[in-house]
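Minutes, methods subgroup
Present: GH (chair), OT, SY

1. OT presented the first of two proteins processed in the latest run. Sequence and structure tokens recorded below as shown on screen.
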Amino acid sequence: MEPQLLIFDLDGTIIDSRADLAVGINHMRTLFGLEPLPMETVVGYIGNGVRRLVEGSLQGADVDVDEALRINKEYYYSHLTVHTTLYEGVELGLRRLTAAGHKLAVLTNKPGDPSRQILEYFGIGDAFAAIIGGGDVENMKPDPDGIYRCMEIAGAHAANTWMIGDHYTDLGVADNAGIKSAFVRYGFGEERGYKPDVYFASFSELVGYFC
């Protein structure tokens, strides 16, 4: 295959971060005297940025969202990788994709600094030409700002660029930027009516498609 720019989502695509995100949310809720939420409930609020995650987890509670956001960030940013893991096949798969001539990037609605810290922790940060998170560009997914930044950095064209993720914002941003999209079924997001160009059941299957 001709070299492509493959732009990956982070949570639910490269890393399984559900447990650490849920612990952070429930730490915040406990400080406000609220009962902890099941991890499955917290997962339903992931994908649209940290403020939306905190707001979703506080529905019906009389809590200052800005203060809750500060508490959540302070705790989560110091507990980024307690339970978080790479999905199976990611580390080797990224090396294979790079060896095949593809350029790689990350575009996530998680804030940029913790995103880069997590990727560096797992020793894969240098695999990516760009790591763009929430706050690094003006608008988050599904607005296409981050896609355009990744393409600019990588010197790529829309015809050879993919957005790969597990969430409807990933499919939406691909549509908005006029690029192809892939949906990974092993993540924890949902399509919400979007139709990706291709589905992958595992990261290894994804690598096989592009290599």
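2. SY then presented the second protein from the same run.
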Amino acid sequence: MRNVDRHLLLARILAARKVFCLGAFLGVACICFQVPHPASAQSLSSREYEIKAAYLYNFIKYVDWPSYGDTITIGVLGSDPFGAALAPLSGKVVKGRRLLIKHLDSVREAQQCQIIFVSSSEKQRLQEIFESLRSARVLTVGETRMRRAAPD
């Protein structure tokens, strides 16, 4: 086996390992959400968005970001369901870059971010948002299912 083939195989194994670990983490989180809990609805919602903020933070660790700038910006497009859950992330350093949190008023602003959380309040505009971000280097994350249009 050539040296290049070994490196390619090793890279694929490591990538599969990362995906497996992330999947396992997501699975555990799903199980936690299904367990009945005596807490109030407001604290459950607050806890839900703390966990979602943790996911956003961990996504940053698993992405190979292009080498531009010394910050990684997480933008929230639409109504902000996080409350104070994203605040602890602001200023943290991940992969040598400082995190910034921005609340966005437009898709145009989103093009300046590396990660965009698309709020469920933007459900009716999802297709428009994704079309506007098509050429941008942006990781989009959301909590709304998007139905793909049927192929022509």
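Chair's summary of item 2: The CA atoms of residues 127 and 147 lie 9 Å apart.
Next meeting: continue with the remaining queue.
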